[in-house]
User: What shape does this take?
Amino acid sequence: QVQLVESGGGSVQAGGSLRLSCAASGRTIRNYAMGWFRQAPGKEREFVAAINWSGGLTKYGDSVKGRFTISRDNAKNTVFLQMNSLQPEDSAVYYCASGGSTSVALSDYGYWGQGTQVTVSS
Assistant: This one.
């Protein structure tokens, strides 16, 4: 079983940047795809980005393409989400998850973190 802990969230003005981290423990994540999802109040959890086990394949949601970058450091058992040009609509709780592929579907991820809040003010 793997435990995932997100960090790096906070409050930022529109146009700013944040870097989220997801640290895994209990099991190596080097053989697993990892994903980031987000959920705003009153909305469904949505796909943000995913990365395969090696980091050679990435996938992004349409709303974040060109602004967000997912990466991983398997030696540190950690996944990152660099978020640039943040907008108020990016405000949400951000979750990382581990899964078998770079899927956009929540159901394809077996382990989830508790989330970190990102708030972007205009």
The longest strand covers residues 18-25. The CA atoms of residues 1 and 26 lie 6 Å apart. The radius of gyration is 13 Å.
